[in-house]
Design a protein that fits this description.
The protein is an alpha/beta fold. The protein is built from 12 helices and 16 strands. The longest helix has 21 residues. The two termini are 36 Å apart.
């Protein structure tokens, strides 16, 4: 395709009465049962848009989650549709509608395509499914399309199929610095409460339930501090986000990298308010103080459960001894945040295989005693690519009710609006999605 060809990229609407957070759970998606829930802007789509624009394509990007679909979103030579696992049924239905409205080539992409690509091909009238991190080979897929004239039949395309190097056999990029910065200006970024940045991808840990490792792999892939700082400068100068979230699954896995990044932020004089997530054992009081000085306002850590045997079975930790140390580290991290005035959001899970209301009650007591700034409860979801045992049976909703008591207790203790758990409505719903939001 030459530069005159038009490519539209679409984050499809949510189903009525819901909110599709397709970027959640590392792009595997989370669907909330009410329309005003928390969501992440479509970082993957924005990065694909940037790569296309850099290659000379005429690009439009539409986010129908936050804006009404426009008549011209079907006016293109090719249309890329961001599809997630959690929203798959809704996405397939909307793709069918698109197919009836346009003769454009339809391309499905997103981290979940490694696991549901064949299902998309079987049930949606798409011309191609891009398998792997499409940000790095979307352009080459279009170029091959132009060279062939037309694909002989709908098919999956992986980086190797379009002669793109720098990927592993799972379709994951080896050098993240080859990617452009996301083209947020092509999206309705003023409507987003935050913008996101990925300074690393992947997690070397082996948690059986985690969609992040399934989507991004177990190799911890990092960008250089210089490259991350260049993007922070770009975001600050071009968009001035009120809130910035590092979407890295384990932001602080390399402590020295975080120290260098925070030092660079302070030396540059950047005034950004940001958040991050990592395992509790990655933090210590000195690091947290440095992060706070550099603009960090929230950290997110996973507790999941206080059942030590279950932590071992789910491979959150390797042994009973490590389980005890892990719970101690959770407590120390929450206490350190409270002492320095840094907000800490703690995550727990209901419906874990082997968990029951009694163990959930133990977790509730632990959380209430710790007093984190906020508590998020997720109902365990079995994402493709994870190694989670069967979720059948159990008292999942009862566990949710028990853990929500801790939410209510924390909410009553936090009079400041900025420190409340995520809304009263959150207490009334069981949320689909076992990973982070």
């Amino acid at each position: 395709m030459a530069a005159k060809h038009r490519v539209n990229l679409i984050n499809l609407p949510s189903a009525p009465g819901t909110l599709a957070n397709r970027e959640g759970a590392a792009g595997m998606g989370v669907v909330y049962p009410y329309p005003d829930a928390f969501f992440y802007p479509p970082h993957t789509l924005a990065t694909v848009a940037a790569s296309l624009r850099d290659a000379g394509y005429q690009v439009q990007a539409f986010d129908a989650v936050v804006e009404a679909p426009r008549p011209n979103w079907v006016e293109a030579d090719a249309i890329g549709v961001f599809v997630s696992y959690a929203s798959l049924d809704t996405d397939l239905a909307y793709i069918a509608t698109l197919r009836n409205q346009t003769s454009a080539k339809l391309i499905a992409f997103g981290p979940a395509m490694r696991f549901v690509g064949q299902e998309v091909l079987a049930h949606a009238a798409v011309d191609a499914v891009l398998v792997g991190e499409a940000e790095g080979f979307f352009v080459e897929a279009l170029q091959q399309w132009a060279a062939e004239g037309a694909l002989s039949a709908p098919r999956e395309l992986a980086p190797g199929d379009v002669q793109v190097s720098g990927y592993n056999d799972q379709g994951l990029m080896q050098d993240l610095e080859t990617l452009p910065f996301p083209a947020w200006d092509l999206l309705p970024y003023e409507k987003y409460p935050l913008l996101t940045i990925l300074s690393s991808r992947g997690c070397p840990d082996q948690c059986a339930y985690c969609p992040y490792a399934a989507a991004q792999g177990h190799r911890f892939r990092t960008r250089s501090v210089e490259n991350v700082m260049a993007e922070l400068d770009y975001l600050n100068e071009r968009f001035r986000p009120a809130r910035l979230i590092f979407r890295d699954p384990v932001f602080a896995h390399y402590r020295n990298r975080v120290v260098k990044l925070c030092t660079a932020i302070l030396e540059r004089g950047l005034h950004l308010r940001w958040e991050c997530e990592s395992r509790p054992e990655h933090f210590d009081a000195d690091l947290l103080r440095l992060m706070q000085r550099a603009g960090c306002q929230w950290i997110k850590i996973g507790l999941e459960t206080t059942d030590e045997a279950l932590l071992v079975r789910l491979r959150r930790v390797a042994s009973a001894a490590q389980a005890e140390a892990y719970l101690q580290q959770v407590a120390e991290t929450v206490r350190a945040c409270r002492e320095i005035g840094l907000c800490c959001r703690l995550f727990v899970m209901a419906g874990l295989p082997g968990q029951n209301a009694a163990t959930a009650e133990k977790t509730r007591g632990f959380v209430e005693q710790l007093r984190p700034t906020a508590l998020n409860i997720k109902l365990c979801e079995r994402y493709p690519g994870t190694d989670l045992p069967s979720l059948a049976g159990g008292d999942r909703e009862l566990q949710m009710q028990v853990l929500q008591q801790a939410q209510a207790t924390l909410q009553a203790r936090q009079p400041a609006p900025g420190l409340l758990v995520r809304g009263k409505r959150w207490l009334k719903h069981v949320v689909r999605g076992g990973g982070r939001g």
